[in-house]
Structure formats: C-alpha cells, structure tokens
Design goal:
Elements: H1 6-9, H2 18-52, H3 55-70, H4 73-94, H5 105-131, H6 134-142, H7 147-177, H8 189-200, H9 203-232
Helix pairs in contact: 2-3, 2-5, 2-7, 2-8, 3-5, 4-5, 5-7, 6-7, 7-9, 8-9
Length: about 240
C-alpha cells in the first residue's frame, strides 16, 4: 500500500484534510480582517490625537504606540486572553456564577492583533496626513468647502492614498500574527496543520501546505491592495 501524497492530504474526500485546512484558512482570514479593522479604527483616532489633539491626548497616543510597539505580539495575546478570562470570571462570580469562565479565544486574538496593529497604523496614518501638502487643503478652503466637506472630499482620500503602501505592509504583519492566536484555542490554519501533522505523522507535508496557503492569501491580498492604490492614484502625475 503506497503512502498518500500531498494531493491526497488536501483532498476533500473522507480521508483527506482539505475541508479542515480550508476552514482553518478561512479562520485565519477572519482573524486577520477583524484585527486589521480594529487596528484601523484605533490608528485613525491615534493619528488624530497625535496631530490635532491636546497635550493629554498626544501623551496618551504617544504612550500607546511606544508601549504596544515594544511588546512581543504573543505576550499581548496572552494578556488579552488571560486578563479577559479573569475579568469575565470575576463578573460571573459577582452575579453568583461558579468556576472559571474562559474569554472567547477568537475575540481575545482579534482584539490583541487589533491593538497591536493599531499602534503601527497610527504612525502610518500620521505620516500619510503629513504627506498631504498644505496647498491642497488651502485650495479646498478657497473653494468654500467646510471642514466636514473638505475632510470627506480632500483630506480623507489623499491621506488614504498616501497610507495604502504602509497599510499593505501592516496587513502582511497582521496576517502572520494571526498564526499566534492558536494559543487561545482557536483552530486556524497553523493549528489545524499541527493537528494534521500529529494525526498522520507527516509534519513537513502539512506545514508545507500551510506555507503555500499563507503565500496565496498574502499574494492575492497584495494584488488587491495594489489595485486599490492604482485606483486612488488615477490622474495623479508621477515624477
């Protein structure tokens, strides 16, 4: 009897691991998207605090980016998971519940990845806003645009255009960080590969497949970001 090959492993038949790996890959994408979206919201407010905020908000934003960029990503995930579990357990006990209550692993991972990427996106958005020339904003004011209209029609599109290359790099980091979320019990692509490797005794095959899937997700998302960058750069004269 011949040993099954890689194609047999990724098949969707009764003896294949294709369905389990596909579910794991989808979970990886969901974690990355949730973390990136949370980070984008935090990064927007963080950049605003550093640019237009008062002394207190600037100090808070500076402290946030300094601390989060200096902590290991895995440590942040542990802090959110075990800290969240301790908080949920304490709340449950206050209402009469007994025993330990675990914080949802997906939520802890998404929040941890989001807070970590938010520190990076804060600097990306801040740099992108600084790249908008004062003349463009002065021209919008001269045309009679109010602050809200100027932000919607001029400031936000130009800032996003300058931010997209940096956001693309942050996305690649977030995608790799999603593999760390398996420590909270979430079965994403890497964790599913570990399960398959342990069950079949073929670790190289499973991890090689996982590497190809990660590269595929990274390549496709990179192409989408490039298309978005080209779309936002229509009509821009390049030197």
């Amino acid at each position: 009897m011949t040993e099954p090959g890689i194609l047999d492993i990724i098949s969707f038949g009764p003896d294949g691991w294709g369905h389990a790996l596909a579910v794991g890959a989808w979970m990886t994408i969901l974690i990355a998207l949730a973390g990136f979206a949370i980070g984008a919201v935090i990064g927007t407010f963080g950049a605003w605090a550093k640019i237009s905020g008062g002394p207190v908000t600037r100090m808070v934003a500076e402290t946030y980016t300094t601390v989060l960029r200096g902590l290991p990503d895995l440590l942040v995930i542990y802090l959110f998971y075990f800290g969240g579990s301790a908080a949920v357990t304490a709340i449950g006990q206050a209402f009469g519940a007994e025993g330990f209550v675990s914080f949802p692993g997906f939520l802890a991972g998404a929040l941890a990845v989001g807070v970590t990427s938010g520190a990076q996106q804060t600097e990306v958005f801040r740099g992108a806003f600084r790249a908008v020339t004062p003349g463009e904003l002065e021209a919008a004011t001269a045309c009679g645009m109010g602050r809200l209209l100027k932000f919607r029609r001029i400031t936000a599109p130009l800032t996003l255009r300058h931010a997209l290359p940096g956001l693309g790099n942050v996305w690649q980091v977030v995608l790799k960080e999603s593999a760390l979320v398996s420590v909270t019990g979430v079965v994403e692509l890497l964790r599913q590969s570990q399960i398959g490797a342990g069950s079949t005794g073929r670790p190289f095959d499973f991890f090689f497949i996982a590497a190809l899937v990660y590269l595929a997700i990274s390549t496709v998302s990179g192409l989408l970001l490039q298309l978005s960058e080209r779309r936002l750069s229509r009509g821009v004269r390049r030197g």
